[in-house]
Design a protein that fits this description.
The protein is an alpha/beta fold and about 290 residues long. Strands 1-2-3-4-5-8-9-10 form an eight-stranded mixed beta barrel. It has a two-stranded antiparallel ribbon with strand order 6-7. The longest helix is centred in the middle third of the chain and has 21 residues.
């Protein structure tokens, strides 16, 4: 995914490595492995569908994959449409995504509410057309970090309510990285949304690629649990992005490819640069409709 660069100082002191080497620090008693309360699963997301031939290769490593219902941020078209059955044939789980607006596109809370309801209707129609079952979770992709404007919260509330009327559940993809919010105060976008919405059933897909807590561009046998992102209620954690963001990944730079991207172990030609995710279920959006 493309991330909007925000002019805010990210609080890295909370993620500073102690005197231990990086790999050794990850094995401390508070390591992500010991924080897990159950199995975790590895997934990826990618703006461009990698092709039918890529799916068997990727399935050897990943349990689930991002699936766009809208044109992804920064892209001109959506070529994931119509690929659900092909992915089901490879037994992939789903992380269903829909691109949200930028704040500059929302002119007022009233207009934002109308836009949220309309976008939810589009997302529900696209989900139904591709065969996703009622109750599947659609994650709204929010590309801005820090505290969101009131009009954006109005958009999210309308999105959640309209999607529920269409028999789908809501989730958000948002930042789980602390940023300055005044003297001695920090905030994450995830916490800001949770405080303003008060929706217990909203699922959170958070990104935090700062190393640590992120292990970097690695494909672990036991992926770190989403709670290790720093957001205890997260359902999914995006712990690596392609290309890597140098300001956050100094301590794990060696885990990325020389070109700065993440690739699947079976991708010798480096055809598909990926974002890496972990979840507590192999189907975070419940998009399989009972199929295994």
């Amino acid at each position: 995914m493309w991330r909007t660069r925000i002019a805010m100082l990210v609080l890295l002191s909370a993620f500073a490595v102690s005197g231990l080497p990086f790999r050794e620090s990850l094995m401390s008693p508070s390591s992500v492995a010991e924080q897990a309360t159950g199995p975790t699963y590895l997934g990826f997301d990618l703006n461009t569908y990698p092709g039918d031939a890529a799916l068997p290769v990727l399935r050897k490593t990943f349990s689930f994959a991002g699936y766009w219902l809208s044109v992804p941020p920064g892209a001109k078209e959506n070529n994931w449409v119509g690929k659900r059955q092909r992915m089901l044939s490879e037994k992939f789980g789903f992380l269903i995504l829909f691109s949200g607006p930028q704040s500059s596109e929302l002119k007022s809370s009233t207009q934002a509410s109308s836009r949220g309801a309309a976008d939810a209707s589009k997302a529900a129609s696209a989900a139904k057309k591709d065969g996703f079952p009622a109750g599947a979770i659609v994650f709204l992709d929010i590309e801005e970090g820090g505290r969101l404007a009131p009009k954006y919260h109005a958009y999210i509330r309308a999105w959640v309510d309209a999607l529920a009327r269409a028999a789908y559940r809501s989730g958000v993809y948002c930042s789980g990285m602390p940023v300055n919010d005044g003297p001695g105060v920090t905030i994450t976008t995830a916490d800001d949304i949770r405080k303003n919405l008060g929706k217990d059933d909203l699922a959170y897909f958070v990104y935090n690629d700062a190393c640590p807590p992120s292990p970097g561009c690695v494909v672990p046998h036991n992926p770190p649990p989403p709670s290790a992102s720093g957001i205890p209620y997260a359902a999914v954690w995006q712990f690596a992005q392609s290309p890597r963001r140098k300001e956050f990944t100094v301590h794990c730079a060696a885990t990325y490819n020389r070109d700065g991207n993440c690739y699947a172990p079976g991708d010798a030609a480096h055809d598909w640069f990926l974002d890496l995710n972990s979840a507590t279920t192999p189907d975070p959006s419940n998009g399989r409709d009972g199929q295994r």
